[in-house]
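Proteins fold. Shown next:

***
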Amino acid sequence: MSAWQHLWSAGTVRWPRRRAAAAEDLPVRVLRHDPARRVRPVAGAQGLDQPLLWVVVALLCWGLVMVYSASVALPDNPRFASYSPYHFVLRHALAAAMGAMAGLLVFQFSVEQWRRAAVPLFILALLLLVLVLVPFIGKGVNGARRWIPLGVLNFQPSELAKLAVVLYAADYMVRRMEVKERFFRAVWPMAVAIGVVGVLLLAEPDMGAFMVIAVIAMGILFLGGVNARMFFLIALVVLAAFAAVVLTNEWRRERIFAYLDPWSEQHALGKGYQLTHALIALGRGEWFGVGLGASVEKLHWLPEAHTDFLLAVIGEEFGFAGVLAVIGLFMWLTRRIMQIGRQAIALDQVFAGLAAQGVGLWIGFQAFINIGVNLGALPTKGLTLPLMSYGGSAVLLNLIAIAFVLRVDWENKGLMHGGRS
């Protein structure tokens, strides 16, 4: 037997069957990626970010419990006499369920499809902000016209505008990346767009939503690489604009004065009433609270206890420990979303990264404002606590935004594990 025959019989030599099969046996997978095409992550990389998902579920469930606790006594008020004790919690649960289903639906769309929808969604948000100001279409509550009745819920266009601005600003920065160092070409068109949104929101009026949207837009411009000097110039202009709005409006000026001295005889029963009772609720809670359901301030003392001042009820019933837990959950949630955004940018997915970080700015800044207002660190402002406070369209859009972030993370994993376009 020849040496060749001996090697063949021993199994040392094997003829290559096909070139393709040999290529598949290579220890390194070649990744060819076109960002304009849909990413198909490989098997094993399709898991969702479980910690992020469970933190969102925890905030939703805790919020549901607290909405019920804060609203259970409202039917005793003549204004809500026709409502059942379960009215608000059932509507809140319905909004959360709708948000979860909407989140599952929108998760099926690729980030590229989200990018293509950015401009149409921004135009739709503008149209709805105009419609809400039209008599017999927009619904007015306490002097503000912010809602469009849709039967099962009152839709708030400003919530859609927040998501639309996130996507639009991220898409805008990707399109304008080559001129980001030139002030007028890079910033002016975006400033005009946000100015139009601001005019419509201030007409409702909803200054709180405008503040959040302005921070989202400025944050995405900064993260997108706009020159730092230009960014600080924009920030000064925006602050000057907000100061002018406050100083030229007597009602807003009184709120600022009430915030500075809420316990004075002039303000304690007027503009400072909500703040003083929020502080009383937090003081009653001390370290570990008076117990779930045992709040006294929610018994018609603290207005809007189930919406803007839900954290005060949490502080009364769960104490300092409960407030600290809420702050910790939102800090972790914001940090994780920002990490997902940075990861996407590192993978050369700039739109996905900027949009995800925009969602982080939205949720983090709004939570910061709401917590600051409840603690008396910031002037009273009508902003809800994301994912927790009562508000159908707010919860719905929050969950859609979280679903988008989960989609970004899902595609990131696909790219890192060798996903092929």
Observations:
- The longest strand covers residues 144-149.
- The beta strands are 139-141, 144-149, 154-155.
- The first helix runs from residue 3 to 9.
- Residues 99 and 399 are 5 Å apart (CA to CA).
